[in-house]
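Need the bound structure for glycylglycylglycine, inputs here:
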Amino acid sequence: MATQRIAVIAGDGIGPEVIAAGRRTLDALQALDATLDLEYVEFPWGSAYYLEHGHMMPPDGAQRLAEFDAIYFGAVGWPSIPDHVSLWGLLIPMRRSFDQYINLRPVRLLKGVESPLAHPGAMDFVMVRENTEGEYSDIGGRIFSGSDREIAIQESVFTRVGVERAVRYAYELARSRRKRLTGATKSNGIRVTMPFFDEVFRAVGEDYPDVTAALMHADALAAQLVLRPREFDVIVGSNLLGDILSEVMAAVSGSIGIAPSANLNPERRWPSLFEPIHGSAPDIAGQGIANPSGAIWAASLMLESLGHAQAGQRLLRALEDTLASGVRTRDLGGDADTERMTDAVIATLRRLEA
Ligand code: GGG
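Answer from helper R.:
Posting the output first, comments after.
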């Protein structure tokens, strides 16, 4: 296999700390596995870049990233910049420029990790979040600002192509797993776009008679994910509902510090982007205590997507075995800092290889 080139954007806050940790595990894996030939190029884009240059990434940023095989991303967001400016200046343009219309968020209760639930059972589900449209739209505006007549309007965009491809991806995924699919809706309150989502969900379902599928209002679904997480397999939702529900799922699996996400262009026409789901956590940035697990698991997803399924599985197993051995960061009730946790994952990787 030819050299595969990865663009690294560590971004803001704890992003550089967890991405450096993920890179160390990837480098260790590459030293052990002759089939891996990965080359990295770092881009210093993010909020610090914005404060210096007035944009989160250069105007030709997407063009420069287009030639890479994948993007390894840390986090975006910093208190001195409004969140909608930083997110819409960096992460969302990449998701859209590269038609990464699936945001895949696997959630598992890893060995050695404690769930906040009293009886969690074996938790193993995947959120398929639509990633390029829906409620994340820049159509709208404000008028009469500063007056008591002020109005803010924002339109959601649900296209048949956009909903159908996300829903179909989720049905296919459910077919390859435990054959259960839940559609997150809110068609009782959101009376135009959500009934449309439901209609497409049911229509696509006719091609998958072997998959048990049901729609559930997102509020009830959030409660059921906490009360009966074991009953879920694949969940599909719009951009906003998928984002919120996957954070609930990650929290019940122990910590949002563990969960990864893959922003996929399934046709592989453009690079896909891999990131931990957590944000930049300014409150602990620079202290060296961030949990690198989400970034390491994201690296594992990236390897799988690049055609190195075995290497990806090996990395995830090393992470899980490390957590099971008792080495854990503070968010998981342990006392390891980022470096010790990463050293332990690398040591486990080497033991797995031997
Ligand atoms: N690593 C993920 C990250 O930085 N997320 C920041 C965020 O606010 N994301 C919103 C979203 O994914 O919709």
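Comments: The chain has two domains: 1-101+256-354, 115-253. The CA atoms of residues 113 and 254 lie 6 Å apart.
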